[in-house]
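Below is a filled-in request sheet from our internal design queue. Each sheet records the structural input a requester submitted and the sequence that came back. We keep these sheets so that new team members can see what a complete request looks like end to end.

REQUESTER: design group, bay 2
PRIORITY: normal
MODE: inverse folding
CHAIN LENGTH: 469
BACKBONE (tokenized):
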């Protein structure tokens, strides 16, 4: 990568950070239009080689500098809010997620807002750069545009489920967007769907580089199936998931439970490579304790009790630490803390197991219960379990079985359990049963996290979520 390309990326990151910290000043910080040590945007996107340096930056697994979810905070926060994990430390921001005591000043919510918006800025910058370039081929522009729209859709999908309606920023004109009000939930979802549908048109079934780090056509369709599922568009969710499953590119039956998150997994639809030279995923760094040390986060007895004894997911995705003769269980989907540990693990963003469960749920809502159970049993077979013995004539029975399978298959992944509880309106009963009387304090307002106070000080048009004023 050319040194000038790095300098450009650093300039953009510095500019965004400066605006974030000082945006409330009466006069915005003045940055020279083209200082002699920086290259212009036109130079950055003059050809495919220099443009790719910016694209690589958007995917880089580096906290606050590239991909917007590279610090495991998303997994921790949503796992604590749901019924997956508890925290052993006391008087920390993370106990607030567990006990539903978040405030606008809670530090744990800052990165859930700040890092995705930094990622959105990078995406918008690349979209503008390639669209205005005269030196790039139309095929290259379509490819990069499609990839960036998938990435932007992922950010907004997660933010709308965490915070509700958020400002929709689709340009780099910070003087205009810095004081955007919150868009409605429907408006955010419309943008997400638009981005993904345009990406489906722009992207090819082939991955644009080795591995599955950069999205292809089916990455967009997989995310689109999830969005449609959340919106209750069952036919559209089924069709999008069906296209991914029938593409022939991905496999779950040939991937053992313990190998699902490895680099090169046939189940992977989209995964990012190791973080840097001294660690792999931050999920492993966060959850896996040293030998004989009490884990910082424990799998709840509630979740442990949902697994059947012979379930391979319990054996391989839940770790155990023996401390003074007692067993403590922790999330263990990602096992390798050191970069040199083999085999390499990649951060999984989308995988076939989830898409199968999406098709199953959509099929059940469409009263195609036979297909729903078939998909459910594919997941169970990979986990080493017998086929489901359920009443295939009862839609509710089948849906209940699917939701339980989602709880087990997708635990500690992308807030799926937290979002499932909210969209199925079962969270109040769940919160009252997890760990007996220990997990209390849930109200309907806790379904959304508060907007960080610092953001509202920068932009007084941001209305706070109910219950946090």
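RETURNED SEQUENCE:
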């Amino acid at each position: 990568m050319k040194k000038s390309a790095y300098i450009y990326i650093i300039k953009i990151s510095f500019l965004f950070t400066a605006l974030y910290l000082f945006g409330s000043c009466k006069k915005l910080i003045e940055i020279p239009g083209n200082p002699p040590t920086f290259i212009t945007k036109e130079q950055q996107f003059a050809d495919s080689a220099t443009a790719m340096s910016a694209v690589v930056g958007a995917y880089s697994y580096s906290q606050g500098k590239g991909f917007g979810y590279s610090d495991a905070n998303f997994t921790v926060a949503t796992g604590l809010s749901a019924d997956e994990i508890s925290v052993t430390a006391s008087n920390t921001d993370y106990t607030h997620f567990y006990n539903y005591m978040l405030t606008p000043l809670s530090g744990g919510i800052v990165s859930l807002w700040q890092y995705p918006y930094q990622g959105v800025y990078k995406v918008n910058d690349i979209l503008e750069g390639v669209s205005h370039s005269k030196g790039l081929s139309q095929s290259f522009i379509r490819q990069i545009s499609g990839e960036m729209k998938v990435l932007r859709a992922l950010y907004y999908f997660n933010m709308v489920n965490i915070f509700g309606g958020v400002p929709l920023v689709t340009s780099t004109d910070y003087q205009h967007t810095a004081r955007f009000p919150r868009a409605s939930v429907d408006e955010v979802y419309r943008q997400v769907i638009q981005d993904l549908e345009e990406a489906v048109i722009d992207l090819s079934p082939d991955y644009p580089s080795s591995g599955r780090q950069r999205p292809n056509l089916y990455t967009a369709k997989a995310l689109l199936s999830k969005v449609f599922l959340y919106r209750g568009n069952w036919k559209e969710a089924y069709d999008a998931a069906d296209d991914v499953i029938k593409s022939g590119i991905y496999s779950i039956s040939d991937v053992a439970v313990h190998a699902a998150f490895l680099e090169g997994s046939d189940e992977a639809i989209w995964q990012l490579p190791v973080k840097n030279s001294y660690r792999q995923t931050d999920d492993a760094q966060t959850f896996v304790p040293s030998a004989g040390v009490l884990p910082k986060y424990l799998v709840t007895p509630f979740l442990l009790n949902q697994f059947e004894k012979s379930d391979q997911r319990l054996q391989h995705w839940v770790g155990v630490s023996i401390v003074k003769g007692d067993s403590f269980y922790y999330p263990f989907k990602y096992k390798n803390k050191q970069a040199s540990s083999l085999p390499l693990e990649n951060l999984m963003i989308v995988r076939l197991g989830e898409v199968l469960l999406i098709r199953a749920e959509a099929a059940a809502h469409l009263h195609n219960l036979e297909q729903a159970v078939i998909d459910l049993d594919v997941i169970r077979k990979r986990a080493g379990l017998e086929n489901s013995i359920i009443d295939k004539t009862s839609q509710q029975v089948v849906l209940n079985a699917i939701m339980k399978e989602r709880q087990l298959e997708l635990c500690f992944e992308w807030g799926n359990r937290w979002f499932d509880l909210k969209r199925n309106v079962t969270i109040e009963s769940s919160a009252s049963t997890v760990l007996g009387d220990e997990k209390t304090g849930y109200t309907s307002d806790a379904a959304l996290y508060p907007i960080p106070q610092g953001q509202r000080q920068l932009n007084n048009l941001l209305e706070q979520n109910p219950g946090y004023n």
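SHEET NOTES:
- The first helix runs from residue 3 to 22.
- The first strand starts at residue 85 and ends at 87.
FILED BY: M.R.
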